[in-house]
Each structure stands twice: as C-alpha cells, then as structure tokens.
Amino acid sequence: MVNTRGAPTGKRRLQFKEKLVGKGHSADALLAKLKTLQGELARLDQDDVDVGSLNGVRSELVSPSVTLHKDKGVKAYAACCLSDILKLYAPDAPYLHNELKDIFEFFFTTLEKGLTGTNVPYYEQYFYLLDSLAKCKSVVLVCDLPKADELMHRAFRVFFSLARKDLVKNIEMAMSEILCALVDECSSIPQDVLDLIMAQFDSQDAGFRLAAAVCNSRADKLQRYVCAYFTDAIVAASAEDAEGGAEELKRVHALVRRLNADAPGLLHSVVPQLEEQLRVDNTALRAMATATLGRMFADKNGADLARLHAHTWKFWTSRKMDKAPAVRVELVNAAPKVLTAHPELRKEAAEILVLKLEDPDERVRAAVCKAYAGLDFESALHHVEVEHLRKLAERGKDKKPAVREQAFAALGKLYRLALPEIEKNNVPAINHFAWIPEQILHLLLGSQETRLSAEHALAEYILPLPTKGEDEAAWTERLLLVMRFMDDDAATTLVAISNVKLARPSMYDRFVDCCVEFNGGTMDANEQAIKRRLAAIIGRIAPAYFDRSTAAEDLNAFALANEPRLYALLRKCSDPTTDLKTLSRSLAEFAKRVEQSTPLAGAKETILRLVRLVSLWVVNTSSVPTLLAKFSAGGPGGSPMKAGGREAAAQESAKTLFRALCKWCPGALKAHSAELNKALLDGKNVLLTEMALQALAGLAVMDQALVPTDKKVIDRLTKYALGTHVRHAKFAARILAKLGGGQAGKCEQVVKSIANGLAKADMGLAVAHIAALAQFAKFAPDAFEAHSEPIIEYVVQEVLMVPCPRDDDEMDVDDEWVEDKDLPDLAHAKLLALKMCRNRSLARAGAEGAMDVTQPVLKMLFSILENNGSIKEDAEDSGKVKPRMRFRAAVCLLQLGTVQAYATEIVQQFPLLAMTVQDACYTIRIGFVTKYIQLAAKLESRFNLIPFLTAQDPEHDVRDKARQFVQITADRLPADKRMLNFELIFIRFLHLLAHHPDFTSHELEVLQDMQKYIAFYVDTICNAENVALLYHLASRAKTIRDAESHAGSENLYILSEMAQEIIKGRAGFHGWSINNYPGKVKLPSDIFKALPTIEAANTILKTSYLPDEMQTWLEEHNKPSRSPVAKARVQKTSRKRKAGGHGSPAKRTRTANGARRKQDKWSGTEDGEDSESSIEDSDEEEEARASPTPVARRGTARTRAKQKKDEGDEEPQVEDGDKTLSGDDIEVKSDSDEAEETLGRGARARGKGRQQRQKKPARNGKK
C-alpha cells in the first residue's frame, strides 16, 4: 500500500540525503549512515512530518542489499528504521503487500536472532524495534496480508521461543502487547496459532507465562476457540487406538488443569464439556473429568466457578455414587483441597469424605484415608470435625490391609502435626487430636494384622525414638504427655506392646543363640538337634506375624545369612540395661545392615519388626530419672497432687510405667540402684519411697545379689515392714525375704515380731502386717511357717470370720464395686488374708503336707463363692465387701489351679468357679476373664470352658476379650494341642450347659439362651478341619448319661441335638463337608456314665428330645453370629432365672418316651438391671483390674451350685456302633506339660493386652 497523501506545508522534512544502496558501500559506512538515519527518524513525530521526504529512504530500506546484509548492525538499524517508517506512515503503509510480508519476516528474524540476551551486540536496537512494534501496533498490518496466518504463527513462535525465566519484564510485556494486538485484529485465530498457544501450557518452559498473559488479556475472544480445541482433541483421541487415545486424553485434561491454574478465563465454555464427560460410559474419561473438575473447584477461583456452574458442581459431587471405583477415588482425592480452600463448599466436600470412608471398594476407602493424611494441621483443626476423624479411626478395623495402613498412617501424621500445640496446652488441639493414641491402642487388639499397622503408626509418628536434637528427658516427657489423654485400657495396652512384660531371656534371645549354633548351616556336631531347636524356636516366633509361613522363611533366611554383627545388635537391643542413645544407634545400624544385606533382601520387613519385638522402644532405663523426678514433684511429704492437673496426670502415667518396670522388667532399674537406695533412706516423700521400695523389691526377686546389704538400708526396710503403710510394708517384706548370708535371720525376726503383735494391733496396722505376711508366705515360706499357727489363728478368727457390717446409709445390694479408699480396713484385711493363704499354699506346692494346708483354703474359697461373697451363709457383710471377696476368691482358685494337685480338687466344683464369669458385677466378670487369660498357660484344658460362658454377657468387651483370646491362642497352637485344649472340651461344655442355672425348663426362651452359648463356641472354634470332630462329639452326647442326675441327662440330650443342628447349619453356610470322624474319642468318666443297657441306648438314640418349636426356630435362625467387632447391645433387659423347673414339652418319640426329668441340682438367683463401672489399677500385683466407681454393671446373675451325688451307680457299658465301650473308654487323658507350655505362649501373648475399655471417665483426671 503506497501513501497518496500530499505534503502539507509547514511539516518537518527528513534531512538525510545520502544513498543507502549502491556500489562501493562498506559495511561500516552503511552502518554509519543507518545510525544517522535512524536517529533522525526517531526524532520525527507522526503528526509533524512531511512523509514525502521519506520516499527515498523508504524504497532503499527494503532493498535486499540492506535487509540481507551480512552485518548484524546493519540489519538491526535497518529494522529500526523500517519500524519508524511504518510508525510515521500509520495508519497506512507505504509498501505493497509482498514488501510488507518481507518486512515483517525481516522483523521477526531480526528479533529471533538478536533478543537472545541483554549482553548481545545491538541489544538496544533490538529492544527499540520490539518496543516500536508494541506501541504503534504496526504489527496489525500482518492480518491484512496474504498468508497472514503464516506470519501470525511466525510471530507467536518467535516470541514464545524468546521467552525465558530470566526474561526482562518490559520485554515480556512488549511481546504480550504485540501478540494481543494480533489476536485483536485477526478475524479468526488460526488453528496452528491456537495449537502453539496451548503447547506452552503443556510444557514446563517459560513460554507459558507469555501465553498466560495473552490468554488472560484476550480470554473473551479466545474462549470459543479453546472450547473447539478441546472438543476436537477429545474426538481425535476417541478415534485413536486404546493406548494412544488414553494418553491423548490425559494430555488434554492435564492442559485443562494447567489452563485453570494460569488462565482460568479461557475455560468457561469448557466446563460444560467436562460435565458431559462425567456422563459418558468410558470410565477412564469419567475419572479424568472428575479429577480435572476437582482441581478446578479446589483452585483459588473454585468457589466462583461452582457458583457460576452450579449444576456442574452438583453433578460433580454426585460422582460419590459413581459405579466405577476409579471415579470415586478421583473424587475423594480432590475433596480435601476443596474442603480447605473454600468455606462455601466445605459441607459438601466433608460429606464426600465421610461417606466414602465406608465405600464398598477398598481403593476408595484407602484413598479417603490418604486424603486425610495429606491435610496440614490448621486445615485438619479448623475444617475437619472430630467426629469425622473418629470415623477415620474406625477404618483401623478394616478387613483390607491397604485401608488399615492408610488409616493408621493418617492418624499418626495428624497427631504428629498437632503434638507441638498439645504440648502448649492448646485446648482446641487437645480436643481435636489428643485422643488419637488412645484410639490406636484400642484398635491394636483387634487382630494380628491390625496390630502390625497400629504398632507401626505408634513407632513412626506418635512415639518415635528421639532425634539427634532431642534429649532423653524430652523423649520421656513426650511419652507422659501422650499417656495423659489415655484411659487405663490404652495405658495397659501400651505397656503390653512396649516389651516391658517380655520374660527375659526371651524366645528371641534363644533364637539368636540357635542362629549362632546353626552357624549359617555349617555345624561341627549335633547337626540335627541344632536344626530341630532352630525350627522349634522359629515356630514359636512366627505367630507374632500375620503371615506365619513368610515369617518363618524370613527367619530361616536370617539364620542362614549368619551375620554376627546383626546378632550382636539384636542382643544389644534386647538387653534391658541398654540406654536410649545406644538403643537408637543399634536400631539404626541394624536397619542399615539389613537394607544392605543381599541374603535378607526379601526378609527386610520381618527382620526389622523382629528388633521392635525385643527392644524397649517405649520406655527404658533412660526414662527412670525422669519418672523418679515426677514422684518427687508431689505435695508436702509426697502427698498427692491436685487431681485433674497436668502434673498430676503426668505423675499417674509415670506410676503406671515405673510399676510396670518394677514388676516385669527390673533389669532396666539396675543402673539406678544407688539413687533408689538414697530415696529409701531419705523417706521424706511417701510416694518416692514407695516406688523405690517396689523397684528394689523387683531387683531383689530378679537377682538375689542385688539385695541391699547396707545395715542402714536393712534397718530402714525393717521399719517399713513393721509400719502402717501397706505398700511400704509389702515391698519391704519382699526385700527382707530375699536377704541372704548373715542377714537371713532378719526375715524370721520380722515375721515373729508381726506374729506377736497381731493381737494387739489395730485394724489399720493389721492390714499392713497381713500385707507383709503375704509376701513372707510367698518368698520366705520357712520363716512364715515357723510362726504360722498364731498368724493363721488371728487371720481366721479376727479377720475372715468377723462380718464386715453395712453402713447405715448403704443400700442392700451385693454387686457394687467401690474404690479401695472407700473400703473399711477390715475389708482390706480380709482380701489380704485370702492372698496370704493362697501364697502359703502355692509356696508349699509339692512339699509334704501341702494338701493338708490347702484343703481348708479351698473349702473357704468355695464357701465365699457359694455364699455370694461371705464365708458364712448367714453373715451380714457389707455389699461393698462381698463383690471384692467373690472376685478375690475366684482369682485365688484360678491361681491355685495352676498346681496339678490342687487343680484335681478344684475341678470337683469347677461349675461354681466357672460361673464367676457370669457374676452380676461387671468388674468381676472382666477381671475374671483377664486373670484367666493370664493364667491359661498353666491351667488344664477344662478351664478353657470359661471364655465360652461369656456368650450372653451384656457388655461386648467381655465377650470380645474372651473370643479374641481363644481365637488367637487356638490359631497359634499345633493341631494336636488345639484339639486337646479347645476341641475335645466341647463335650464338657455341653455337660456344663446341661447343669447351667438358667437351664430350668425346656421352654423356647430358655432353649434360645442355651443355643447362644453353643453358637458362640461353634463360631469361635469350628472350621473345615474340625467340624467332623465337633459334630461327632455332639452326637456322642446321646450315647452316655450324666453322672449326676437324670435331669442333667435329658438336658444333655437336648443340647446334643441342638449342637448337631447348629454345626450342620454352620457347615452348610460355609460349604463344609461333615464326614464321619475317623478317630476314637474317649469321653471323660468324671462327668459321664455309660448307659445301663443296649435297649436304653437305642431308645435314647431314636428319641428326639429337642422340642418342635425350637427345631423350627433353629431352621429359621441358624446362621453365624455377628462379628466380634459388631456393635454391642446398649442395654439388656435381664430375664429372671427360675429356681424351679417346669414341665417339658412333649418329645418327638419314635419308640419310647424319655425318662422324666428330675429337679436340676442348680438353684438360681435373679438378674438385676444393667449399670456401669470403670476400672482402676489394684495395688496388688496379682489382681486383675478393679473399679473406683461405686456402680456395677449387672449381667447374668451369678449362681451358686448345690452339689449332690447319685448313690449306688454302677459302671455299665454303652454300645458305640459295633463295639461295646466300658467305663475305661470314657476317659480323656490329662493335659501334658508340652500342651500347657504351648498354650501358654499364646495365652501370655494375649493375656498381656489391654483391660477392657470403660464407659465411665477413668481415674486421675483422665478423660
């Protein structure tokens, strides 16, 4: 386009007259001319120039000899001159179309080669050119030229290529203005230009900043083109093959997310497209659209987007019900960011997370847990409700390991973030997060796989070993802070997993010994014996892992690796005297060596957990000084601190930990014996003195060489043993009992002094004396026996036989459980007297005359159970004392039952003892189950019936504790030991139920109750391997008769038929086949007798004793019971037990009627109403949990047996198939020592777990 304007007068004319084109021009000369020309052109103003004077230079500047000159300076100045010409001629151009095309090509080439940095030659000229194009907008002439699309694409490509992260801001702005001018002026955006713009967002180059600036400035015009771009891209991707199309779709959605972050204004027309993608059948596309929209809603402008596209937001949130798990996963991944970014959208986002915690697909549940784990502290505190976090914790019981691991990790991470604020006593942080460790510990007992995940969360996030900058005191203070917000159950569980209770030397130490002997498989002698020992110890350790077979293989690999340094480190970690710093270094080195060991490459997880199973990683010897300091921080004389305070809570936690060390791991206290003796001699702080005495007593029992020998210390111990403080007297007596050498007689002197002073002592002093005597009876039996006559006479006549009267305001109830401080001194004396008698019997076990000493004790203990807590039937004892007496008597009988000679006598009245587990007082029931679990290793198999009597307990924690112990213990036992301890006892269980005090009639309601016991047993024990045996035992019950009564026989036959129906129902449900049991089972002759004749046996076998209505009920309801973790009943309306029997319904008889029932030998009591109780630690080591709350939970009312014998019974024979069985065939072999030892391993592993959680606030100010 050539200028046709005239040259008005008065305008400035160009003064430059030299020629730019011609022969003989050197580069320098031409450059000088162009500099002069450019300077003059730059000074001219568009409104005050005579453009006619520019005609000469205008033509010469586009000459190829100038624009194609080799000199960069010539081209740079020529470009500047041309840009000035275009500016002065604007809005017209003094060039033809083809000339303009060459000019802009020249501009872009010059800029592309010149603007590569600020230090290049002629940088000022290049910037001048760029700035001129931006300001005068002459670049818009490109849009009027032929092939304008190509030039426009060239401009975008050049400028995007020039964009750098260190690009000067004004250059970037100038480029942006030029490109925006092109977008504004063009009639439509060329596709290749749009592709180029979008490509900048695909890459990580700095060009996306320039692209974003252009897109944000011209969003209105670019919107529809971007929308069309994505439409075409999706269509093209759909037409490709599956793999290529998927990758293209991923790229497209990634581009949308990038655009949303940097240029959201472009996407208003794209959002409806994304919503449509949420509706397609293609799962991958729906998932990508869900993720993309989630990112958009979580962005800073997400709330506005959700408001503008409300329908899209609503439809996006509805994807929580999408049929594809992948879509739901993407939804929950986006929800936390929406939750924390926009208060307006928080409610819907929170609902998504909470709802999907219970999604049927494990991947979704795991994704939700992971989403919570990604929250920061402030977001979790202010934007997530506590109820939602507690629901997250429930996923710790999930059946899928991936979900459990993510749930525990999320809880641990959130707690770790909150801990600094909890330390500052930040109340919101405490309320929101302080409960997490307690909940993890409660969940830890759920199953073996749950335990692994929970332990990892505790060790990794909540109670990690100290870092380099953290001292030992701070580490212990952190532990006390964590325990401050725990209930007693959680604290007990924490102690259990801390390995404090691990008997040392442990089986892990023996494993290291076996590995050393094994020597990597190279042994000089006794090869087979060494291999057997190694295999046996691995068989004992493997059940500590979820996958036993894998664990066994990994432990074998550890033995084969034969790395002595690992053995040494494992021993160091297991040693209770190892301090915290040494433990941390040893653990770190152990982990590093395992990581680097090629033979252990696949066994890393198993071996690393092994070191945690042996080390004191929660509390150890380095914690002792901090714990002792807490005892010194009490009130005057060591008086208790104010309840509810932070220091008081820390002191209570310190007592829990220190007492655990004293009782189970005194080796950790060995290095602190001097400090303990000093505290003992000082004696000013009552609590510190008590703890020092208990610690020294633990050391004395562990190693007699550690017993104090200093005369001052012994004199002080004597003073405490004779004093009025019960716990001081107890532990001082224990230490004195261990004195040796020349001080051995000191113990007998103290016993004599106490025996001589008992008659004159007031009851308060008598309590302390009896506590000391109980210790002497256990640890110094000879000294005790030397003065036993006056002691026993006093205890029986002045303590046990003396009624403990009721208070004037005391209600007439017998099932209240009160705090120790609310019991009268006489009650304490009674309880300690029972303990003393028990200790005396245990100490004399195996000695001559042991039964002479123990028979009266057993009679007394059973009398207490028989008389509901009183020794005499007509005693008027306080209702506060009777529950304690019942519980102590039952526990003493369990402990005495660990001695075979005593157990033979105890089992004669076993039903009376077993029914303690159905006591009306909740604390007795849970405590009795706990004590049974602790002692189960040493008890004969008949005692294993006790946990199955919890089937109808109104509190789920009692049932669950019993069920979990049986399941874990039975699962760990070899097949033969499992049969002996849990399967063959089924026939005894049916006999026990036949004489149950509830079995007073054959009415439907009564039979339904009996059915629950059998179903509980079957659901806990029965599996595909033993179903034939259990069915065989159930059917054999109709081939014998009860040894005690005809009524018992009839009940037994009903239960036999009922058990068979239940087992068949479970077998059908699980698809098990019930084959004929091939083995021979001997039935116990102590409870059964053979039938008198073959005719009687045939009659019984052909008679159906189970009433029709019960048979019908079983057919309708015979399904497996709910899971142990199912919600328990909140309240149970107890049914009164009937003392007398009712007529039984008519039996279905094919040949003859059954014999009439006789009155059952059991008499019953009435149920009470349900109530609640909390549990407190007892001062007595052997006690189970005791409750400080003077309210009891009533369950099934306890019952008392009235034994009677049938006289004149002969020993007839019973026909079993083609063989006639004599009385000898009805015997079952007694438990072997090996069976008890094997069962004990499982029982101890389980018995050291938690005490069941209370529903009342726990003691000492803990929530």
UniProtKB/TrEMBL annotation:
<dbReference type="InterPro" id="IPR011989">
    <property type="entry name" value="ARM-like"/>
</dbReference>
<feature type="compositionally biased region" description="Acidic residues">
    <location>
        <begin position="1166"/>
        <end position="1183"/>
    </location>
</feature>
<keyword id="KW-0539">Nucleus</keyword>
<protein>
    <submittedName>
        <fullName>ARM repeat-containing protein</fullName>
    </submittedName>
</protein>
<feature type="region of interest" description="Disordered">
    <location>
        <begin position="1115"/>
        <end position="1263"/>
    </location>
</feature>
<dbReference type="Pfam" id="PF20168">
    <property type="entry name" value="PDS5"/>
</dbReference>
<keyword id="KW-0498">Mitosis</keyword>
<dbReference type="InterPro" id="IPR016024">
    <property type="entry name" value="ARM-type_fold"/>
</dbReference>
<feature type="compositionally biased region" description="Basic residues">
    <location>
        <begin position="1243"/>
        <end position="1263"/>
    </location>
</feature>
<dbReference type="InterPro" id="IPR039776">
    <property type="entry name" value="Pds5"/>
</dbReference>
<dbReference type="GO" id="GO:0005634">
    <property type="term" value="C:nucleus"/>
</dbReference>
<keyword id="KW-0132">Cell division</keyword>
<feature type="compositionally biased region" description="Basic and acidic residues">
    <location>
        <begin position="1216"/>
        <end position="1232"/>
    </location>
</feature>
<dbReference type="GO" id="GO:0051301">
    <property type="term" value="P:cell division"/>
</dbReference>
<keyword id="KW-0131">Cell cycle</keyword>
<feature type="compositionally biased region" description="Basic residues">
    <location>
        <begin position="1129"/>
        <end position="1159"/>
    </location>
</feature>
<dbReference type="GO" id="GO:0007064">
    <property type="term" value="P:mitotic sister chromatid cohesion"/>
</dbReference>
